[in-house]
Design brief:
3-stranded mixed β-sheet, globular, two-stranded antiparallel sheet, mainly alpha
Length: 285
């Protein structure tokens, strides 16, 4: 078909797609994003009226073609000021997450601690607020005592920082008849005299500042008959006389546990806190 003067004809296959893309592009521009490219429109090449100025048609074609090309390669593109806002928000959230993770890592306690000497340990609380260790160490002394320990009540009570007390988690309220309430139980868990003597003179005496010549008894704060452990946290050089009045309290609490008058945990916490007031605190005197 011959071309008349002043007439422009689009012969390429892009023209129908460009014309069909105009409504979608107009909607996308007002909505802040571009949509995917529209499907091609089947049909013969379209003829633009000769009355349309060539410069205007060419300019419109360039603008629409540019938007169409961009839509094919970038879906959901935000405007520049929106992209800046999203980037800032992501940065703030990222820094916040990093800070929280770092703080959590710094403040979370380790769960891998264990008593020196191979005992299995955990902790529970006493009525006095001191940690009562749970150490399973039958027939052996475990752990150590920190230096500079101070007696309380004229030597009748140990330093709670050095000797807070420790119990054997193998002894429970449910197995009393086969453990502490069973005759001969303490013989199955008591360490040898050589172990206790070595601990007494090499660890306990120096920690409490006692001379080796002083006659004291290495005592279990929570006695073995009450489910006490052999850990250093439960051992201290007890002042004379021997037998000590504390022994009577231990026997009374043992009987109360086995008779069902008090619970195992209540008795352990009471004697670890203060053996002098344990019976009164438990309503046994």
């Amino acid at each position: 078909m011959p071309r008349e003067r002043g007439e422009t004809i689009f012969q390429d296959a892009t023209a129908p797609a460009v014309v069909a893309a105009v409504p979608a592009l107009r909607t996308a521009a007002t909505g802040g994003r571009f949509t995917s490219a529209p499907a091609k429109v089947r049909g013969p090449p379209q003829l633009i009226s000769a009355r349309t100025p060539k410069r205007q048609v060419t300019s419109a074609y360039a603008v629409i073609s540019d938007k169409l090309q961009r839509s094919r390669y970038a879906t959901s593109v935000l405007r520049p000021h929106l992209r800046a806002c999203v980037a800032a928000a992501a940065l703030v959230l990222g820094l916040s997450s990093c800070s929280s993770a770092a703080l959590s890592a710094l403040t979370t306690p380790s769960s891998s601690s264990a008593a020196a000497g191979g005992g299995t340990t955990s902790t529970t609380g006493t009525s006095s607020g001191h940690a009562l260790l749970r150490v399973h160490d039958p027939r052996r002394v475990t752990g150590t005592i920190p230096a500079h320990c101070t007696f309380r009540d004229g030597g009748q009570l140990p330093d709670p920082k050095c000797t807070p007390g420790a119990v054997d988690p193998a002894v429970t309220q449910g197995n009393l008849r086969s453990t502490i309430c069973h005759p001969g139980y303490t013989k199955t868990v008591r360490p040898s005299a050589s172990q206790t003597d070595r601990f007494k003179f090499e660890v306990a005496y120096p920690a409490y500042g006692e001379p080796h010549s002083k006659k004291t008894e290495l005592d279990h704060l929570v006695s073995l008959e009450l489910g006490g452990a052999n850990d250093a946290a439960n051992l201290w050089p007890e002042y004379p006389p021997t037998p000590n009045p504390k022994d009577k309290v231990e026997n009374a609490l043992h009987a109360a546990i086995c008779d069902g008058k008090v619970t195992l945990k209540a008795a352990q916490n009471a004697i670890a806190s203060n053996w002098e007031t344990a019976e009164r605190k438990l309503g046994l005197s």
